[in-house]
């Protein structure tokens, strides 16, 4: 090969070569461009027939740049008839600033003869980072390569040899070329251009640039603009701001634009940002600026200091190219789309856009209606009030629906925005709408509210005022256009409930509680047959603190109403006694069984329910004939009753009753006056009470309630029959106030006084109380205080109580007034008690043998020492053998004994082994081995293999992750999902090499486990373990589809070896595996019943407990009803002879609860579409938990032991400091680090040796990279952190914490 250049002496003086250079140079038109450099390169090919599809020449240098020629021998794009030839620049691929303006000519010639040659046309290209390869796809036909020239009798390729070459000439980039290159970023999408403008702002002194610097103002199309540059410590941000839209609500500008920075003297060095060139951007009163982050590496060189290619003599240029477009209907809709965008579980049904041309504004009467228009079978009409409703200085504008007035069962849910614009210019308009995710932005059209809009839409004076820039007004030549843009969504349960809420006016009353109750009617025709002795049907339910009944008369209440359905709401709190007034508003309704938008409602006005007036409703709620027909023939709407099914319901809102509120304040004041503060500073106080519905004076029932004050958790216990162990106290009720936080925390000390009380359920004047006169100091050794109240005080009718007893009809209210004080005197006492307790603990420890577990390996180096293995159980018999050493033996072999370091073990309880495992405290080596073998056996099945070695790509919108993932994954077949799964986030550049998949499962876990979706719920207040929400069908339509989706996600996590960052109860995993439920499982369903049943099994005296073969259950709606465990069970007493049968029936009843059966079956359906059903023969419930979720506790020793290094070794100071830092982290911080590095915070049960990456085992890796000033960068696809060589521990810790917090990650292929 040879390289010839006019700027250098060539090795060959061959005349033919010089002639070739001259010939090619003359064929290039310079176009008055300034030449920078030129040269020729020849590539000698000696084995043409052996060329592969694509082959590149060696690198060569012309003009200070590295180049390569690329030959494509086989090109499908040209039917494989031509040879393609390209010129690639090597340097430019890694330089986002540089641009090379080039012209060149390709040629191919005979290996030995310069006269046998074929030239290409002169080509030109501006090389850049995004355009580093250019050439001729049809350079020469293959057939011509071997055709001999008539005169020369030679072919271009002879003896399998030829020469391919290029002549290159580079030019200095002109301003016009640089501008054209930036302009080419914008696609106009066939829209009419109004104007375009280049604005450049020269920064003369980078060092003196303030953090917020503004450019001079500039004008485009009579609009005023400016640039803003935030220096921000070498991470600059550039913003484009429109100044007119700040002060003028009618300014609307549709644009696309490109930010750029360049060398102030050289157009060859620049960089542009085209993120705002892809779609239209709108400047208006809501959005008047757009910003762009500029990469710091543009301004800083790799060696530190300023990048000389951009910043020269401390100066550079920043600018913007803007192109504006003419407005039309599409642009208006695009700009206003923000106001009618839905968030969450919504299905868009239709979209409406309507414009009303006003031809003569002055002729409009006070009220003017637009022509009717139809969208999605609904009739609409705009209503304009020229003189306004509330203020005649404004015009009022409304959208009316005409269907809902004729059809009371019609309900429409929409988001809408109004506008008024210039008759001839779509860009000059004013709008009003409600934006964002708030439910207030959603409007409901119904028979009560058939119109929505603005009383004060726009001031009249603003209609005719001319804009200074455009010299236009909204109403011009007596003409304008009024428009509305809206979007209708389907009715979800939430929308249905929101609409009901919106129908009730609170009338300045304070809301106490509100709720929705529904009664599903499965067979309307048979209602009366089910209740043979009644003319009505009823449904009881509890809402708030009150009991209610819906009374339904399908054939009307009384003969006069026989053609109607009658419906009533009745309060049934305590029908035989006095109770306080209940101030209530309610809506009664009948709706279609499957369609939330089809219902009839009637509103009950404010009603005060009491003893004499406890029912309210409608004798003629709806004509029976209207139940089975749709009033709207055009809309194909549902009837209220279809397939003999419907739903009866009520939305109830109770209000605080003012007289009761006054009594409560007086009562609280009485209790507070019983406490003497003794000049101590009060921190906080509370009056807490709870209602006891069924006081049983013959058993020692415990009633309790927990509450929080001062960030501390308290429990009030009422023992109705005193203390069984002390017969002398059986005539008393024992009341205990207990603090729950101090029990296990030596550092908490609380100073308090309290008043305990028990009062009448409805009368604040009827009560008894006891209080402690001295301060009580709550701590670990003293966590409670108790009082005894004489039963005679509670059950005796007294004159001062108007001959009431405190406990009547087995009901009362118990409570406490508690006051917390600043803790002073007890500090010294606390220290003394703590020291005494520590001494006692140490003495007890040294006297006793203890079961311990080894937390690390220890290798003996003396004859009397004992080797110990991590996670091994041992017995310590002497805790004070010698300083720092203990004496003991192996738990499973007493003969193996000796001494070992105290710090290598910790005390544990083997009897709580399962609990320890569940808390991730102890996972023994035996369990790890067993689990690993099970996993290998399970994954060896053909059903657990990837299909066809192909892949399925899923694009997910991160901003709508749950809904989008549901749609995409449920639309795939199980076979597609069992291929190699690749995740791509919409509008993100990451490539999934495993990291994105892990990130997806981590993110979707958070979404699935969010109780706000009402699909799952926490199993109890003290646990983050999840279980199925049995009420999901009330809140989430199509909830079973979402449960099937959850099942698929669980199966996919197992199949693709990923972990979910959530956990369920063990009972849930057991049900998934179809394992038989046993008595111990009862503790996961009802711990209280489990304890009682366990006591019953182990003790005699069942006949004294007044138990029968019946039990009270609660359905998914919260209704409690008594269930007989066997025929006539309510009349069969439980005794010691039949208690085993009773226990068996109770356990079966509780464990076979069917409240969540449908949801569970849907989860199983999705799960077993992915996972083979024989999983239950391999794994138990605990195994399944770890298979899906891994473990949370991170073993740093195991992590370090299974870490690989690149550029480091484990003795480097950076690595030593890294592991020191990790060891000092809390477990939560370690999980954050693991999440940062791998995309998931869960660890395999088998430890870090089995850490997954892209479907295979991939150890955690630390790579040496960057400088000390850089932050660590994670590559989650490869479980790797690029760790700069920090020399100090403080520096490493600060940088590492910052990286974890800011999440500096990379998703890429390597």
Automatic annotation (TrEMBL):
Record pathway: Protein modification; protein ubiquitination
User: Which reactions fall under this protein's catalytic activity?
Assistant: S-ubiquitinyl-[E2 ubiquitin-conjugating enzyme]-L-cysteine + [acceptor protein]-L-lysine = [E2 ubiquitin-conjugating enzyme]-L-cysteine + N(6)-ubiquitinyl-[acceptor protein]-L-lysine
Q: What is its EC number?
A: 2.3.2.26
Top-level taxonomic group? Eukaryota
Q: Name one GO cellular component term.
A: cytoplasm
Arranged from A to Z, the UniProt key words for this protein are: Coiled coil, SH3 domain, Transferase, Ubl conjugation pathway
EC main group: transferase
Report the residue ranges that make up the HECT domain in this protein.
973-1310
Which segments constitute the SH3 domain? Answer: 847-910
Q: Which GO terms describe its molecular function?
A: ubiquitin protein ligase activity
Q: Which SUPFAM superfamilies match?
A: Hect, E3 ligase catalytic domain, SH3-domain, TRAF domain-like
Q: Name one Pfam family in it.
A: MATH_2
Q: Which residues form a coiled coil?
A: 7-34
Alphabetized PROSITE patterns for the sequence: HECT (PS50237), MATH (PS50144), SH3 (PS50002)
Q: Where is the active site?
A: 1277 (glycyl thioester intermediate)
Query: Which CDD domains does the annotation name?
Result: HECTc, MATH
Domain MATH as annotated: residue spans: 38-168, 351-486, 514-652
Name a biological process GO annotation.
Answer: protein ubiquitination
Name listed for the protein in its UniProt record: HECT-type E3 ubiquitin transferase
């Amino acid at each position: 090969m040879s390289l010839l250049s006019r700027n250098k002496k060539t090795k060959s003086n061959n005349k033919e070569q010089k002639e070739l250079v001259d010939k090619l140079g003359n064929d290039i038109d310079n176009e008055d461009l300034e030449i920078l450099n030129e040269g020729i390169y020849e590539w000698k090919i000696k084995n043409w027939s052996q060329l592969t599809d694509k082959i590149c020449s060696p690198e060569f240098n012309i003009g200070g740049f590295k180049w390569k020629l690329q030959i494509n021998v086989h090109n499908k794009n040209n039917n494989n008839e031509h040879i393609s030839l390209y010129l690639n620049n090597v340097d430019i691929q890694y330089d986002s600033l540089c641009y090379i303006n080039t012209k060149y000519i390709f040629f191919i010639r005979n290996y030995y003869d310069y006269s046998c040659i074929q030239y290409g046309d002169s080509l030109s290209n501006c090389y850049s980072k995004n355009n580093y390869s250019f050439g001729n796809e049809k350079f020469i036909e293959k057939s011509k390569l071997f055709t001999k020239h008539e005169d020369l009798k030679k072919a271009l390729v002879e003896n399998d040899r030829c020469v391919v070459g290029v002549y290159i000439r580079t030019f200095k980039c002109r301003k016009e070329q640089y501008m054209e290159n930036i302009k080419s970023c914008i696609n106009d999408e066939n829209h009419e251009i109004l104007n375009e403008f280049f604005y450049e702002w020269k920064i003369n002194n980078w060092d003196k640039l303030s953090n917020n610097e503004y450019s001079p103002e500039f004008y485009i199309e009579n609009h005023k603009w400016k640039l803003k540059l935030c220096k921000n410590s070498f991470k600059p941000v550039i913003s484009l701001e429109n100044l007119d839209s700040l002060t003028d609500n009618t300014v609307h500008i549709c644009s696309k634009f490109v930010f750029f920075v360049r060398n102030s003297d050289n157009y060859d060095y620049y960089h542009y940002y085209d993120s705002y060139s892809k779609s239209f951007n709108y400047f208006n009163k809501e959005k008047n600026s757009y910003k762009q982050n500029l990469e710091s590496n543009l301004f800083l060189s790799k060696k530190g200091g300023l990048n000389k290619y951009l910043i020269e003599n401390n100066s550079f240029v920043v600018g913007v190219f803007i192109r504006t477009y003419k407005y039309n209907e599409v642009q208006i809709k695009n700009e206003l789309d923000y106001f009618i965008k839905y968030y969450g579980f919504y299905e868009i049904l239709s979209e409406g856009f309507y414009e009303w041309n006003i031809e003569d504004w002055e002729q409009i009467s006070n009220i003017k209606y637009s022509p009717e228009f139809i969208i999605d079978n609904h009739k609409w009409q705009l209503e304009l009030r020229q003189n306004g409703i509330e203020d005649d200085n404004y015009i009022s504008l409304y959208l009316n629906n005409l269907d809902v007035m004729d059809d009371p069962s019609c309900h429409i849910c929409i988001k809408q925005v109004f506008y008024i614009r210039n008759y001839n210019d779509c860009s000059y308009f004013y709008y009003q709408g409600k934006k964002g995710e708030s439910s207030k932005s959603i409007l409901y059209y119904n028979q009560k509210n058939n119109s929505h809009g603005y009383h004060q839409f726009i001031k009249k004076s603003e209609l005719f005022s001319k804009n200074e820039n455009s010299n236009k007004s909204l109403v011009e030549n007596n003409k304008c256009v009024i428009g509305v843009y809206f979007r209708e969504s389907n009715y979800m349960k939430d929308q249905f409930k929101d609409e009901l809420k919106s129908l009730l006016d609170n009338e300045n009353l304070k809301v106490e509680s509100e709720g929705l109750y529904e009664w599903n009617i499965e067979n309307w025709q048979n209602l009366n047959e089910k209740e043979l002795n009644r003319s009505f049907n009823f449904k009881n339910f509890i809402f708030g603190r009150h009991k209610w009944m819906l009374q339904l008369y399908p054939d009307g209440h009384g003969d006069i109403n026989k053609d109607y359905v009658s419906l009533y709401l009745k309060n049934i709190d305590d029908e035989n006694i006095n109770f306080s007034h209940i101030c209530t508003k309610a809506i009664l309704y009948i709706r279609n069984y499957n369609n939330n938008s089809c219902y009839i409602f009637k509103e009950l006005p404010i009603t005060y329910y009491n003893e004499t007036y406890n029912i309210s409703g409608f004798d003629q709620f709806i004509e029976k004939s209207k139940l089975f027909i749709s009033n709207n023939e055009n809309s194909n709407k549902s009837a209220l009753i279809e397939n003999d099914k419907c739903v009866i319901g009520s939305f109830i809102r109770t209000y605080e009753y003012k007289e009761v509120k006054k009594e409560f304040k007086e009562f609280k004041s009485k209790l507070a006056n019983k406490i003497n503060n003794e000049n101590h500073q009060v921190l906080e106080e509370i009056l807490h009470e709870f209602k006891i519905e069924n006081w049983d004076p013959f058993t020692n029932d415990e009633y309790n309630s927990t509450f929080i004050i001062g960030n501390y958790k308290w429990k009030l216990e009422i023992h109705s029959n005193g203390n069984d162990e002390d017969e002398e106290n059986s005539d008393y009720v024992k009341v205990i106030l207990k603090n729950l936080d101090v029990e296990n925390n030596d550092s908490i000390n609380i100073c308090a006084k309290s008043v305990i009380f028990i009062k009448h359920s409805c009368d604040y004047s009827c009560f008894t109380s006891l209080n402690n006169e001295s301060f009580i100091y709550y701590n670990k050794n003293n966590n409670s205080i108790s009082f005894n109240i004489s039963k005679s005080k509670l059950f005796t009718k007294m004159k001062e109580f108007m001959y009431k007893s405190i406990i009547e009809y087995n009901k009362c209210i118990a409570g406490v007034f508690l006051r917390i004080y600043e803790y002073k005197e007890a500090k010294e006492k606390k220290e003394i008690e703590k020291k005494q307790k520590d001494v006692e603990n140490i003495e007890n420890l040294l006297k006793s043998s203890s079961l311990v577990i080894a937390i690390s390996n220890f290798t003996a180096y003396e004859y009397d020492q004992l080797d110990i293995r991590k996670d091994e159980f041992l017995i310590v018999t002497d805790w004070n053998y010698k300083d720092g050493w203990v004496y003991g033996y192996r738990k499973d072999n007493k003969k193996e004994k000796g001494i070992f370091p105290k710090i290598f073990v910790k005390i544990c309880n083997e009897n709580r082994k399962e609990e320890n495992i569940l808390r991730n405290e102890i996972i023994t080596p035996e369990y790890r081995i067993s689990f690993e073998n099970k996993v290998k056996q399970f994954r060896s099945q053909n059903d657990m293999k990837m299909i066809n070695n192909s892949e399925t790509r899923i694009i997910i919108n991160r901003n709508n992750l749950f809904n989008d993932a549901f749609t995409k994954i449920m639309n795939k077949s199980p076979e597609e999902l069992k291929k190699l799964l690749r995740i791509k986030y919409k509008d993100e550049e990451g490539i999934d090499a495993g990291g994105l998949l892990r990130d997806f499962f981590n993110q979707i876990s958070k979404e699935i486990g969010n109780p706000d979706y009402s699909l799952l719920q926490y199993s109890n207040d003290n646990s983050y373990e999840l279980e199925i929400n049995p009420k999901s069908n009330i809140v989430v339509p199509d909830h079973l589809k979402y449960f099937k989706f959850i099942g698929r996600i669980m199966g996919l996590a197992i199949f693709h070896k990923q972990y979910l960052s959530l956990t369920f109860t063990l009972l849930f995993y057991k049900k998934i595996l179809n394992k038989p439920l046993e008595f111990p499982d009862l503790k996961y369903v009802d711990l209280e019943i489990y304890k009682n049943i366990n006591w019953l099994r182990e003790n005699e005296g069942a006949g004294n407990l007044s138990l029968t073969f019946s039990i009270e259950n609660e359905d998914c709606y919260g209704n409690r009803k008594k269930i007989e465990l066997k025929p006539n069970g309510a009349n069969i007493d439980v005794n010691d002879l039949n208690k085993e049968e009773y226990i068996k029936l109770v356990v079966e009843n509780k464990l076979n609860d069917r409240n969540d059966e449908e949801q569970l079956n849907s989860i199983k359906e999705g799960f077993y579409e992915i996972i083979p059903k024989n999983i239950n023969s391999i794994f138990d419930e605990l195994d399944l938990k770890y298979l899906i979720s891994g473990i949370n506790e991170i073993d740093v020793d195991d992590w370090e032991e299974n870490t690989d290094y690149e550029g480091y070794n484990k003795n480097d100071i950076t690595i030593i400091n890294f592991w020191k830092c990790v060891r000092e982290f809390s477990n939560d911080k370690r999980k954050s680090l693991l999440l940062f590095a791998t995309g998931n915070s869960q660890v395999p049960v088998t430890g870090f040796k089995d850490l997954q990456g892209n479907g295979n085992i991939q150890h955690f890796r630390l790579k040496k990279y960057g400088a000390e000033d850089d932050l660590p960068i994670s590559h989650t696809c490869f479980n790797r952190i690029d760790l700069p060589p920090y020399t100090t521990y403080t520096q490493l810790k600060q940088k590492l914490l910052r990286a974890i917090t800011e999440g500096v990650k990379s998703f890429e292929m390597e």
